[in-house]
Each structure stands twice: as C-alpha cells, then as structure tokens.
C-alpha cells in the first residue's frame, strides 16, 4: 500500500511539472511572437524585461531571470520550498524557451503587424493561460504571480486583481521608452484580459467535489482513498430504510481533478458500490484552501458585547 501511495505522489508531481512546462511554453509563444514584436507591454517581471529590451537591447530572458532570482529569495521564506521549487523550474523553462525561440525566429518575423488589437488579444490568452495553469499546478512564471501568491496565502483576494494592481504601474512606465500612449493603452487591455483568463482558469481548476460511498468493502475503499489518493475521508453510520440493515457510509471531499482517479479506485475494489458525487462551493482546511479573513476579529470584545446584551 505504501509503494502505491508513493507511486501516486510521484505521478502527481510529474503531472504538475508537465503542466508547468506546457504553461511556460505557451507564455514564451505569447510574449515572443505576439507582444514583443508589436511593442505591447505586459506587467510583472515580463513587462520590466520587455521595457529594458526596448530601451537597451538586453535580451528579455536575461533580465527576466535575474529579477526573478531576487524575488524568489524573498518568496522562499513566505511560500516555502515546495512552491518555489516549481516556480524556479518554471522560470528556468521560460528563460530557456525564450532563448531557443528567439534563436529560431526568422529575422523580421512580425505576426499580426497590421492588427495590433488582435495581437494583443491572442497574446493575452496565451499569457493568461500560462499564468493560470502554472498557479494551478503550484508554480508560476515568477514576478507579480509570486507577489499575488504571497498575498493570497493570507488574504482572500482575487489572484487576478492582485496581478492587475501590481502591473498597472509597470505598463504605465513603458511610455518612457515607447513614447506612445496608444501602445500603453494596448498594455492596459492586455492586462485586463490576462486577469480575466487567470481568474476563470484558476477557479475552474480548483473546484472541489464530495463523495458519499456505500459499499460492503468500505474498509478497503477508505484505506485506498487515504493511502493511494492521499485524501482524508470519514466513516458515517447509517441504516437502510428498506432493508433495516446497518451500513457504513464513506464521506470524502477531493479536488475535481482527482475525482476520476477516486472513481477508478472504487471501481477496482467494488464495482457494485453506490456512489453519490456533487459539487462543493468552497472547501477550507487541510489539503484545500486556507481560511482567509479580510480582517481579524477581536473575540474578547465580541464576548464582552454578548455578555452585555444578555445582561
């Protein structure tokens, strides 16, 4: 059972790194093929690197890698090695991918040169998908994504809104180099589309589901969910209304992306098990999102007010 659990964890880690790899390559395509040639500024470290590139000619990937190195040193203390390891991997993949793509792009290649708005939209979808997929797999492209993740760890604030707030100043400052407010406006549009794509993608990938499982092999199913799927579950006592028999009901909450794997475990152990699955609006606690509050309550003052009201 332990070996199957370790195998399951390994497969999930490989899946996460595979998702991050695909995400970073999408970001590389969006930035280098649609945004940089059309001088459309994005936010975060990418935006800063783009501005430096237009102003000095220093390759984007060099500035991107250096600035992210400094930011990740700070993030290590807040987010821990687990998050930063994947982010470091994402930054390296993005840097190497950008260098390779720029070396193979024919000189003078300028996609959608006469359709800047379309280039802005396509680039925004690529970058938004890249950021959203990276965050959902526990990593990011660095920059404002890391800042957003640090703030989101302690406050229930939209990831897209945090990124939007951090990046507005960077896009506005691109006017110093570009000297064109029209291009700055394209950057604002790009930023709004990216924030929308990130929120939509992250929220859809973080959906949770709950299971009610009735089976004579409840012990084996519960152990499989605990040890292999690495999810907690609870045992509820029930009674069949028609049969009058005592039954055991397994209650389990998992990520929507894990539901197929749990169904496969149940089917392997007891194909005749009765399973009810439903969507859950929000799940907080160990293994899921952390409970976040907009402000801290003073419990002592609340208790004193309750006591005064009773008197």
Characterize the structure shown.
There is one protein chain. Helix content is 65%, strand content 10%. It has 11 helices and 4 strands. β2 (233-239) and β3 (246-255) form a beta hairpin. With 311 residues, the chain is of the alpha+beta class.
Topology of this structure?
Blueprint: H1 2-35, H2 44-56, H3 60-104, H4 116-136, H5 144-154, H6 159-173, H7 175-178, H8 181-205, E1 208-214, H9 218-227, E2 233-239, E3 246-255, H10 259-269, E4 274-280, H11 299-310
Antiparallel strand pairs: 1-3, 1-4, 2-3
Oligomer: single chain
**Element pattern in H and E:** HHHHHHHHEHEEHEH
Low-confidence stretches: none
Helix content: 55-70%
Largest beta sheet: strand ordering: 2-3-1-4
Number of helices: 11
C-alpha Rg (nearest Å):
24 Å
Write down how many β-strands occur, each being a DSSP E stretch of 2 or more residues: 4
- Tell the overall outline: elongated
């Amino acid at each position: 059972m332990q070996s199957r659990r370790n195998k399951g964890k390994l497969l999930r880690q490989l899946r996460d790194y595979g998702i991050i790899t695909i995400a970073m390559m999408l970001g590389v395509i969006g930035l280098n093929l649609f945004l940089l040639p059309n001088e459309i500024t994005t936010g975060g470290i990418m935006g800063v690197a783009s501005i430096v590139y237009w102003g000095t000619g220093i390759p984007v990937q060099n500035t991107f890698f250096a600035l992210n190195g400094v930011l990740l040193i700070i993030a290590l203390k807040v987010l821990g090695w687990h998050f930063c390891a994947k982010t470091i991997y994402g930054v390296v993949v993005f840097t190497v991918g950008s260098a390779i793509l720029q070396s193979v792009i024919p000189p003078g290649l300028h996609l959608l040169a006469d359709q800047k708005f379309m280039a802005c939209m396509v680039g925004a979808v690529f970058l938004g998908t890249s950021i959203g997929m990276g965050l959902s797999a526990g990593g990011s492209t660095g920059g404002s994504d890391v800042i957003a993740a640090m703030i989101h760890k302690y406050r229930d604030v939209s990831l897209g809104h945090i990124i939007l707030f951090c990046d507005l100043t960077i896009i506005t400052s691109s006017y110093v180099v570009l000297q064109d407010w029209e291009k700055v406006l394209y950057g604002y549009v790009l930023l709004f589309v990216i924030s929308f794509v990130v929120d939509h993608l992250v929220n859809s990938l973080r959906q949770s589901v709950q299971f009610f499982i009735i089976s004579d092999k409840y012990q084996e199913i519960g152990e499989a969910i605990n040890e292999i799927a690495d999810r907690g579950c609870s045992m509820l006592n029930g009674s069949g209304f028609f049969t009058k028999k005592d039954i055991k009901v397994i209650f389990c909450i998992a990520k929507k992306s894990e539901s197929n794997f749990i169904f496969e475990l149940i089917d392997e152990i007891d194909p005749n098990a009765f399973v009810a699955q439903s969507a859950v609006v929000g799940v907080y606690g160990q293994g899921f999102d952390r409970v976040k509050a907009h402000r801290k309550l003073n419990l002592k003052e609340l208790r004193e007010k309750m006591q005064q009201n009773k008197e």
